[in-house]
């Protein structure tokens, strides 16, 4: 399987929507998702990459990353927001290729930066993937739903 990692395009909306719905085991409102997707891929501080099988142009994975300058880091910080490889293509190096391409893209943009990721505490296989790819656990994350 010949794999290409490329920047996500507006025309990839449906593929990205499908993968993020699978990732979160839900069905996101398409119109709202579309608005957020277009807004995010146009932001120059964000990096959205897709894993695509070259011959068939089939999208099989995504990694999205948002960058910002944070006072408490005193340098640019990029945080992986979504990371998903379709189940059939897992354990074939697709995720590793997405991470490596993301890291190279960040290094191209900034000479000094940090890459962070948060993973649901139930996704133990995901935790092992990150540890295997040189991430270290430095934080616990707490969330609060403010929906009225």
Write the layout of secondary structure elements.
Layout: E1 3-7, H1 13-24, H2 30-42, E2 46-53, E3 58-70, E4 75-85, H3 94-109, E5 114-117, H4 124-132
Parallel strand pairs: 4-5
Antiparallel strand pairs: 1-2, 2-3, 3-4
Percentage beta strand: 25-35%
Intertermini distance: 47 Å
Shape: globular
Count of strand segments: 5
Order of helices and strands: EHHEEEHEH
* CATH architectural designation: 3-Layer(aba) Sandwich
CATH homology-level superfamily: Gcn5-related N-acetyltransferase (GNAT)
Number of helices: 4
Question: Which fold name corresponds to the CATH topology?
Answer: Aminopeptidase
> Which value, in Å, is the CA radius of gyration?
15 Å
Q: Pairing-aware structural class of the strands and helices?
A: alpha+beta
How can the largest sheet be summarized?
5 strands, mixed
Classified by CATH, the class is Alpha Beta
Number of domains: 1
Average pLDDT figure? 95
> Runs with pLDDT <50, length 5+?
none
Strand order of the largest sheet: 1-2-3-4-5
Summary, kept brief:
This protein is an alpha+beta fold and 148 residues long. The protein is built from 4 helices and 5 strands, in the order E-H-H-E-E-E-H-E-H.
Which properties best describe this structure?
single chain; 148 residues; alpha+beta; Aminopeptidase; 5-stranded mixed sheet
């Amino acid at each position: 399987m010949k794999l290409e990692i490329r920047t996500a395009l507006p025309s990839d909306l449906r593929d990205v929507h499908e993968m993020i719905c699978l990732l979160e085991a839900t069905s996101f409102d398409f119109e709202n998702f579309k608005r957020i997707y277009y807004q995010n891929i146009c932001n120059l501080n964000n990096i959205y990459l897709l894993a695509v099988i070259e011959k068939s142009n089939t999208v099989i994975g995504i990694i999205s990353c948002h960058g910002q300058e944070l006072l408490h880091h005193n340098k640019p910080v990029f945080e992986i927001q979504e990371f998903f490889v379709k189940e059939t293509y897992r354990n074939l190096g697709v995720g590793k290729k997405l991470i490596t391409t993301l890291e190279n893209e960040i290094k191209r943009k900034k000479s000094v930066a940090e890459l962070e990721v948060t993973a649901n505490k139930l996704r133990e296989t995901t935790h092992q993937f990150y540890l295997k790819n040189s991430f270290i656990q430095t934080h616990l994350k707490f969330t609060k739903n403010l929906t009225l």
